[in-house]
Every structure is written in structure tokens, then in C-alpha cells.
Amino acid sequence: MRVLTSIAVVALSWLASASAFAQGSISALPRNETLIVENPEGTIKNAGWFNIWAINAGGQSTGLHQLGMDTFWYIDPNRGVEGVWDNSLATEKPIYNADFTEMTVKLRKGIFWSDGVEFSAADVVYTIETHMKTNGLRWSAAVQVNVASIAATDSSTVVFKLKKPNSRFHALFTVRWNAMWMMPRHVFEKAGDPLKFDFNPPVTLGAYTLNSFDPNGKWFIWQKRNDWQRTTVARFGQPGPKYVAYIDPGPPDKRVIAQLNHELDIIHDTSPEGMFTLAKQSKTSHGWFKGFPYAHPDPTLPAVILNSQLDMFKSRDVRWALALLIDIKAVSMASYRGAATISAIAVPPTGTHPEYYHQPIEAWLKDFELDTGKRKFKPYDPTVGQQIATMLRPSMGDQIPTDAKDISKAFGMGWWKPDAQAAQELLERAGFTKRNNQWYMPDGKPFAIRITVEGELRPVMTRAGSMIAQQWRQAGIDATTIVAQGSLVDRRSAGDYDVIISWSVETWGGHPDLSFFLDSWHSQFVAAPGKPQPPRNWQRWSNPELDKIIEQIRQVGFDDPKGLDLGRDFIKLMVREMPIIPLMSYNVFTVMDDTYWTGYPSAETAPYTDPVPNWGNTKYMMVKLKQRQ
Amino acid sequence: MRGYSVYLLSRLGQFALVVFIGINISFIVTHATPIDPVEQSIAAATQYGSTSPEAIAMMRQSLRELYGLEGSPWEQYLSFWRRVAVGDFGPSLSAFPTPVSVLIWRAIPWTVGLLLVSTVITWILGNLLGGFAGYYRRSSLLRFAGILAMAFHPIPYYIVAFLLLIVFGYLWPVLPISGGYMMNMERAFNLTFIFSLLKHSALPISSLVLVGLGGWFMGMRSLVSNVVNEDYVTYAELGGVKRRRILASYVMRNSLVPQVTGLAMSLGAIFNGAIITEQVFGYPGVGTLLISSVHAGDYSLVLGITTVSILAVSTTVLLIDLLYPLLDPRVRTV
Known about the structure:
The structure holds 2 protein chains of 2 kinds. By secondary structure, chain A is α+β, with helices and mostly antiparallel strands. Chain A is built from 19 helices and 29 strands. A 5-stranded mixed sheet of chain A has the order 23-22-24-15-25, with helices on one face. Chain B is built from 13 helices and no strands. Chain B has helices at 2-32, 37-46, 53-66, 73-85, 100-135, 140-152, 157-171, 191-227, 231-238, 243-269, 275-281, 286-295, 299-327. Chain B starts with a helix and ends in a 7-residue tail after the last helix. The interface between A and B is large, with 82 and 81 residues.
């Protein structure tokens, strides 16, 4: 018994002594000089690999692409530090010839790699030529499909000759989350096979260089370069944090605990419940919005994606009927607990899109009529965003904005009115019949829909799918959910689903050009049933009118105002045809803690970039962050 | 001796068969998964960027060649066994081109360290307390310990783990809730690093001990309860042998044999990793590696981990089987 007593005494004294060291014990670095950020990639299996050009060779958002890499241009998903477009390694926008078969890039002078070698056109030429002759690098295929040759006309000018006209070739070098990064020629040319080179330690172009990393992949620490003035972000000032640590803090509950203990400055994403807990319990934690719905709406549009190659979804009437059987307010509550930003149209309601698309098209939506065969009616309800705000006000009080503009920004504008009668009329016109409160397809089989959801890997979207299944079941459709977990990517690519809750629309956010996702929607890329579908037309929908719009976009320049008109034409076509049922933007509950740092981006006062820290664009956040005094 | 040789050969044959069947099942299951590592890699490489559909098709072909996924399932099966024979599981598909063996050996010390310590602590504490409780049946302290051990035993592991996280990570934040050691600390054999290592393992080990203790406790208590009624124990008591000696030499020692077998089995299983523990506490180890490789469809890595696990468990069982007849001659004749 004495042994047991001794063990207990030792354990308690050890705990007591541990408490003395508990606070500030997460790192040996000076806490007030260190920004600690969640890396959503989690634990990196081969942590010692920094060769970002090799697929799967290591982490990307370990700080490597945010702080270490650079390329020609960045487009901000929000407003940007000095505008949405930033010439980073380039000094001006891409210069195309008349038929878009040649692109010239003027490079910035005085930019240095972290080992003191100056960046030049030779690095660009090396990067491209390495991808041209090496299969299996991250951007090999994209380069090989497009580039006929590259030449440096002087140390700061490169000219790409393209294999065929491509007015959006620059997108390959324009960061929206990531892009093709430049390689240090002087390092790689000595390294042998670029697929088998670990690039450890990485030689960086960004304002930070690697300080240390955990061989087991839990954390990566970057340190501000002494010569940060010789990097591209220096145009906006000195980066605030001396050290930036990207860590794997574990599941959402632990991220919340870590931030409550002030051991995690930026949570990449947590559950709505986690966000609400932090908002209530921590005075220093806040999201993109000051109050509800807190989250940052990413330029990504979760939607009900209908597999267009299935007979049951070939009729537009059926697709519209399914949309009219959804009550978006209930979906918003089920998925995001109300913290969703809804969109009736096929662009996410984020960044500059409300100004370019949602607001200008609102009048057309209000007038849009749907013909059920028995009557015509206007399905759009412009007040749905307001209704969600009103619904939340009793429980969330002052957190809910009252100004109509603020409500639209936070919760979205309008959506389709649930209308079971109109849905019935549309289904009947499509040859469907209802017996004993159960719908049957024209061939006499029950109208059964499997809704594929991702499961616990993406709980918010899973909850949306479950609610939609419930609503369709109440209307007499035999709807069930299937949890795909890790196989979602394969099922989506193979078209192995009836309906999937996912996204096939992703945009630049800050720039209105839609080719980022839309070009891949051309019918030339729609795979035959059973064959893998290339991203992003997961619905496998083809339409001659859509092809015409895409072909016209290909003919106009990136900034040409005609592109905006064509984008609006695309939206109208999507409303008429409803091949996917848009739901909301992908709201990311990024939570920032002001205990050690201030100056984070915010919707109201500082929308200079996306706070979601795995985006390459967050390099701009570093120059805005200031130590809290 | 001849009897033992026959016994040895038959057990070795069983061992080889179990390993062969186990690895084959793993091969079939991993290759039957709907998750394609190439599609996962393409999704990871393109999900945020702008990549043309033609480039995707080209990338798919390049990756299939690079990962060695060309060829029929039969060819892949033969190639797998050729590699296993020389201890090479090939490159990880989700951490290409790092060899699977490098990833496994990097993770194993953490898992083995964590589970070895927690298994031994649980076994010693559970058996000591259970032995005492079975012998000193009137002690109210030991009865209370028994109630505690039994109360924790049926609680799902993850509940206990989260309880510990909330108590010691948030309400009274005295222990780290994630990682294997303090960030930015140099890994060296010195007191500072060892202290950090111990501190980071305190919660995962405590959670495993709390949940595992009850089983050993109850097993040992019931074994001891039976042994104390044996004639030789009564005779020793009547003979005036000290109670402490009776407990140690007559009761505990005779009750320990099945518990030692249980310990050996538990030690063999430590190579499986403690998946939930590692996930909850963010502890680096085989469990974390296994989960991420399953999600990525990295069947090279999954196969590597399961093969190591099958070999470890089978070898432990074999060793127990081979040692048993030496301890208990009755087994030889069975």
C-alpha cells in the first residue's frame, strides 16, 4: 500500500509542477513574436519533403506555399491589399498577342532567393522546361498541354509560345489558393531527378524561410528572412510575425480548447458549434464577420449536383421540381445552424460577386417565370436572407445585423420559394405519377434518389444532404443518403451517384471571370458514363447554349467587360435549366485570436484578403499583422 | 524431446499459414477498396487550382506509370510478394516517393513507446490492485478502488479521453493536449527533451491506463479469490506463514500465469497502434499513419502497416505457444 501511496504523491506533485510550466509551453519560441496557425492538411507523412512540384511529396499549406513560394500574379478572393489583382513576380499583367498564342511576362528585378541568389528569367525558363520534359510533376501535364516553347528575351522578360490559343493561360501562374510556383534553377539543376529530390531545406522566394519542422509532421516553423525587403511582399511593408508556426492541432474540439488557451492564433476551420462556443467564451476570438454568421464565405458553391447522365434527371421539369421541394431556410439551419450565405444562382455569394452578379441579376430573377404547364409563376423569393436573419434574431440577439445590406452580405439575398404544388405539376408534366404518396417515374419504377454525402469528413455538407433527403421524402420521393467518406472523390469522378452534395462551381472570388471552373464545363470534356470525369463538371451536363457561351469567353480577354455579360448569360441559363441546385457558399469558420496579434482581415473593416490560412493568398496577411502591445 | 519437436513444427506451420492468409486478406481488401490513389492524388493536386481537363487526363496516365499501378491485379500480387520477401513494401503512394518502410519505422517508436508503457503500467497496477482486493477482501480502500476500476472499464474509451482533455487541457490546463513533444525543441537525449516527452504522453497514457485497468483488476481479483480457498493457502495460514508472504509467493504467483499470457498478447498487439488515442491526442504513431493512408487510398502503406501488425501478433502468439510446453508439460501432450 505504501507503494501505491508513493505513486499517487509523485503523480500529484508532478502535475502541480507541470502547472507552473503549462502556460506558454507549446513552443520554445518567444510567444509574442510567433503566430500559430492551423494547417488543415493535418499530420504530414513525409515531413522532410519540401519539393512542392512533386505530387504528394510533402505538405503544401504547411507554410510552404503561403510563406515560401512565389509566382507571377495573385488574385485576391476578397478585395486585395491594393486591389484584387497583384503583380507579384511580374511587373505587369500578362501580355498576349492578338490570337492568344503567345504570352509575355515582364519580371520584377531585385527579388532574391533566400540563399542570396537573384531571381531571374532563367529560373522561369528552367521551371517550364523541367515540366515540359518531366512527366508526373504537379504542373507537368498543364505545361505540356499548353506550351510549345519558352524563351527569355532578357534577364527580366520571358515569352511563352503556346500550342493553341489560350486566353486564360496566365491562370496557371495566378494564385487562387495556389498556382504554379517558380523553381530555383541553381538548386534543382544540381539535384538530379526532380521527382526524387526532397528540397530540404527549401530555398524560398517568399519573405520567410524554414526554421525547423517536426520529422513526424505535426508542426512547421518559418522565420522571417533578414532580407525580407528583397521579396515581393515588401512593397506592402514588413511582415509582422518573426515566426509563423503551422501546426496540426487535432479535431475541432481540440482546436477550440487550444484557442481558449491562446495556444492557437488562427483556427483554419471549426464546426459551427465550435465557433459559437468561442464567440461566447473568448473575448479575443472573432471570425471574418464581427458577429453572426462569423464564417468566411469561400468562393466555392456547395450545391445539389444532379447526375445529368441518369434518365431521371434529363428533364428540366424534374430538376426544377426538386429545387422547389427544398426549403433553404431549413437547410441553412441544419447545415450551418443558420450561419450560411445562400445563393440561388450558380456563382458563390462572396468576394466581389454580389456586385458583379447577384445584385445586377436580382431584377431578372424577380421577373423570372416558370411554366408548369398548368400555370406560370415567379419562383424567386428575394426575402429569404432576411427571413433567415429574422428567424435567428430571437436566439442570437444583437449578433444578427439589422441593415438590409449587411443581412444580404452575411446571409445572402433570395432563393426559391418552396412550392410543393408547382413541383407536383412539373413532375406530372415530365410523366411522373404519384400513388399512395409515392412518386413513380415514367417507366413505373419508384422515384428513388441516393444522395451521396461525405460523412464526418465534411459534417456541414452531410447535414445539408440529410435535410434535403428528409424534405424530398416528405414530398413522396424515396430519397436516402449514402455516406461516401474517403471514397467521395472516386465516386464523384466516376459518376457513381444519383445526387451528390458537393461543388462544381469555384471562382476567383475577387475577379468576375468565370473561366476558372467554366471552361471545363464544355461538352468536349464530358466523359461517357462510367469513365472518369475531369474536374469540375461533376454533373456531366452538356448543353449547346453553354458551349457557345464558353467558346465566346475563350475569345475575349480576361478583363474584357464582355466576359461579365457572358457570365451573366451563363447564370440565366443555369437558372432556366437547373442542372445543379445551388445552395450556399462554402463558409469556413476561421477563428482569429487577438491575444498576441491584431490586424487580421475582416468583412467590415479590413477585407484585404481571405483569412482562411491554407490559401497561398494569405501571404498578404503577414504584412498587416501587428504585435499586440 | 521428439514430442516437443513435433509440437514445434506444427506451431511453425500454423504460424506461416496464419501470416500468409492474413497478408493475402489484407492485399485483397486494400485492392478492393473503391478509393483510387491516383484519383486522390489528382484531386489533391487540382482541387483548388485551375487545370484543364486535357491536362488531367495526361496527369492520370503519368501517375499510374509513376506509382507502378499498371499491370493486371495478378501481376501486382506477384510483385507485392516479391517485395515483401525482401522486406520492401515499395514507395508510399500518398507520400511518394518515400518508402513505406521509412514511414512505418518513423512512426513505430512512438506507438511502441506509448503502448508499451501504458500496457505495462496497466498490467502491473491492475494485477497488484486486483490481487490485493482479492486477498484483503475487507479493505474499504481496495473496495473503493475496485468500484472505480469497474466504473471506468465500461465507459467508451473516447469519452474518457475527452474527459481528460477537458479537465487537464482546459479547466486545469496543466498538460499539453497535442503532439509528442514541445514544438521547436531539438530531439536529443537530455532531461529537457525527456521531460517534454513524458509531459506530452501523460494524457494519452493516463487515458489508456484508466480504461484498461478494470479488466486486469477484475481478472486478477477473481483468480485470487479462487486461489485463496485452495488447501495449500489454508495450510500456510494455519502454519503461521506471514500474510504478505502468502500473498506474494502462494497466491499472486499462482494466479499470474493466465495474466502473463494476456500480457504477451497485449504486447503483441501494440504494433497495431492505438488509433483513437493517437487521433484524439494528436500523437504521432502508427494509428495516425494508418488512418491517413486509408483516407488517401495508399494501399502500399496500408499493406505495410497491416503486414507488420500481422507479423507482430503472430510472432507473439508463436512465442507463447513455444514457451508454454516448457512451463506446463501437459500442453505438449494436447
